[in-house]
Design a protein that fits this description.
Distance between the termini: 12 Å
Largest sheet: 8 strands, mixed
Structural class: alpha/beta
Strand content: 15-25%
Shape: globular
Number of strands: 8
Order of helices and strands: EEHEHEHEHHHHEHEHHE
Strand order of the largest sheet: 7-6-5-4-2-3-1-8
Radius of gyration: 17 Å
């Protein structure tokens, strides 16, 4: 399935950003703008069932296949958050990015026999701007409103269908330079075995003060940790600026 995408910048290097559950590509406005300002062309899709992408059958493999069909292969950087990190890992062999970042990856969640009621998603996530602002007092008003728009368009059936499948586990090996970013305020994802991750070649770092939505909860810390890792990775090139960097506005597209 071809996905709706948003792009920032026209640089020669490419970065791919994959959002998490119930969000959409607009969540990356700050991060993508900073990357675009440093010479990247940033491409961020709306996952199937999210944003302006089509609806359909929801499984981890289906979502990963959409990424492989829609996004350019051979990007300099691919970063996924939560559900987006999990399906990005499944698509990595096809996308072949030079570097991979998994932010709060939704790994190791087992299928359940009794699927949840999709109405419970509204209680769990909050859908109105007022509910989102109350849960995330540190977010800007623009970020709150963008998230509210995303949740209003999100197909809650994804919550039902994805619970019928085991989610991917920690990859067996980091085949390219790989970073796992974790929140200081844990609890939204299963615990990551950091020792096992390091043994498999991943670097693991924690974003101080952040909850699950790292790039919005602690944008300065998120950018600083990411920047430090990129600069320390061979061939990393330019890294995202620290907090508050201004880039170009995202441009919606269909497909690549």
């Amino acid at each position: 399935m071809r996905l709706h995408t948003r792009t920032w910048g026209e640089g020669e290097r490419t970065a791919l950003l994959v959002h998490g559950f119930a969000s959409d590509s607009a969540t990356w406005e700050r991060t993508a703008g900073a990357l675009a300002g440093l010479g990247y062309r940033v491409v961020a899709p709306d996952l199937r069932g999210h944003g302006e992408s089509p609806r359909g059958y929801y499984s981890p493999r289906a979502l990963a296949g959409d990424l492989a069909e829609t996004l350019p292969a051979g990007a300099d950087l691919a970063l996924g958050h939560s559900l987006g990190a999990a399906v990005l890992g499944l698509a990595a062999a096809d996308l072949r990015p030079a570097r991979l970042v998994y932010a709060e990856p939704y790994w190791g969640v087992r299928a359940v026999a009794e699927l949840p009621d999709p109405r419970s998603a509204a209680l769990l996530m909050g859908v109105s701007a007022e509910e989102i602002a109350a849960r995330h007092p540190g977010w800007s008003r623009g970020e709150v409103e963008a998230e509210a728009r995303a949740r209003a368009r999100w197909d809650r059936r994804t919550m039902v269908d994805l619970h019928a499948f085991d989610m991917p586990a920690l990859p067996e090996e980091a085949e390219v330079p790989g970073l796992i970013l974790l929140a200081e305020r844990q609890g939204m994802i299963p615990d990551i075995d950091e020792e096992a991750a390091r043994a498999r070649g991943f670097e693991v770092r924690t974003v101080a003060g952040a909850g699950h939505t790292l790039h919005l909860d602690a944008p300065a810390g998120f950018a600083a940790v990411l920047r430090s890792w990129l600069l320390g990775t061979e061939g990393a090139g330019a890294a995202p600026a620290a907090s508050g960097a201004q880039g170009v506005q995202g441009t919606p597209e269909n497909g690549k």
